[in-house]
Amino acid sequence: MPTAKKSAAAKKPASEAGGLRARIAKALGVSEEQAELRALREMAESLGLFQEKRPEQGAPQPTRHASPQAGYLPQRLYLLMDGRGLDGRGMPQEVIDLPCLIGSSKKSNVWINSPRIETQHLRITHGNEGWLLEDLGSEHGTLLGDKKIKRRLIQDGDEYRLAGYLRLRTELR
Predict the structure, then answer these.
(1) Which of 4, 65, 68, 84 fits a disulfide with 90 by CB distance 3.0 to 4.6 angstroms?
(2) 68-172, what's its fold?
(3) In the predicted structure, residue 64 carries a pLDDT above the cut 70
(4) What is the pLDDT at residue 153?
(5) CA 58, 63, 69, 73 torsion: positive or negative?
(6) Dihedrals φ, ψ of 111, to 5°?
């Protein structure tokens, strides 16, 4: 009888790992192997096991903004907003689901409870060029500095103002 209990206990972690792999891969929009490789790389880096390899001359180099379909994972994008990390009172929010909708709709990926923010104010996507921010025709607009923007490639440290007042900063990691 003890062997039956060990067998059932041994199967649970494997099925739990498989379930986690599948859920994470689906959330990131990549294969399970790519999700697992990303997790292993992050663990190795956090343990100091990652040694920077010097690329061979003439070897093709992966781009930092390659699409997931090309076999490389995109650089991670984090959003920091007033009251949610920008001023130190909250945590940055990682963009995982694509497209990422930002707005006042409770169905938005990033919900902002404000009458000046449109139901669907912004959309963030990822393509071959990198992360792309697109204003969805909002009445009060999206500004970078004092310039109203419709569509822009996101750069690390960009600080946007939604509806002219809500600060949104981007961090690429």
Answers:
(1) 84
(2) Tumour Suppressor Smad4 (2.60.200)
(3) no
(4) 95
(5) positive
(6) -90, 130
